[in-house]
Amino acid sequence: MNEGTLPEKYLGVPLISGKVTKAALTPLIDKIRTRASGWAGKMLSFQGRVVLARHVLNSIHVHNMAIYKWPKAVVKECETIIRNFIWSGNPAERKAITVSWEKSCKPTEEGGLGIRRLKDINLSMLMKQAWILLTEEGDWPEFMRGKYINRTGGWSNYKTSTVWTGIKWALNEMAPLHGWNVGNGEAINIWRENWLLQKPICDFFQEERKEILKYQARLSECIQGDRWAFSIEMTQVLHHLGIDISKLPQPDSSKEDSRVWMASTTGKFIVVAAHEAIRTKAPQPAWSEFIWSSKVLPRTQGIVWKLAHGVARTNNQLQKRKTHLASRCCLCRNQEETLDHVLFHCPFAKRVWKYAQQIFHIQREMESFSDVR
Ligand SMILES: [Zn+2]
């Protein structure tokens, strides 16, 4: 009989044993770097590089991200590669004057470049695994539930594995994003499931929380037929939480309880909706609508986007970065060269605006980017 060997990869993902380390993911980082170096970045416009980064770079690691929680150092290094590629065309070359990565990683309507943060991609994809674990039948979810649910019905804190670290992270982060459609109440632990509010009842009693988590009571104990039948003690708890029992939707004992993903309208889990729920949002600037219009040339889009964020090699920006030079506008030779001066306040800029206002019949005075809408 020959000794077998385990496969090294599954679905293109290297199988890792033990903790997911930066070393284990280095081949992947190298792949992203090689891919980005291979594109003639310098020959492309800023906008062209953004499109490449958005579609291709973000898809290389997707399989791997669906399984492992990436260490912070790996996320940081990959984002640096993508960021450098977008700004300089070379993954190894850092540009001094750029828009912050946080601002760049917003949808275009929110003033960003439509690039997603790797941490958010990672988390939303792991949430899918966690959702399968919570809701589905089958070998994998049943095996995982058997292994990681402890004696009191909670998730194990002590067992570790390469995969569990990521799923546990996702389970914690998605707790406020799902709830229950109450049926017969048999699947729901009254205290540790969020069947009532956005978080479980035990979380409202911080001091007693540890003790409460030992209770095994099921919600079915509070249901008779298709009506609620709360005990006096439970009624007091609900009253304490400000719940009006008469307004609770009635349970339906003919059905089993089902989990609902609250971040989507259908109640079903969708990775895109999960991503949307976890990412940080930004207000919508007035200029975002027209910059990305199909009427604007791609090359111009990139330039205007940078200007809208105040990014230009004006003298005052260079001074901030300790380049010694006198900041004087080269057109009027009167004022300091700032972006607002060059684009709006300089007498030369004012003449250009006046000319444009006459042609396009615009009444509004242009004093800054917030007036452009
Ligand atoms: Zn000037």
From TrEMBL:
<dbReference type="InterPro" id="IPR026960">
    <property type="entry name" value="RVT-Znf"/>
</dbReference>
<dbReference type="Pfam" id="PF13966">
    <property type="entry name" value="zf-RVT"/>
</dbReference>
<feature type="domain" description="Reverse transcriptase zinc-binding">
    <location>
        <begin position="269"/>
        <end position="353"/>
    </location>
</feature>
<protein>
    <recommendedName>
        <fullName>Reverse transcriptase zinc-binding domain-containing protein</fullName>
    </recommendedName>
</protein>
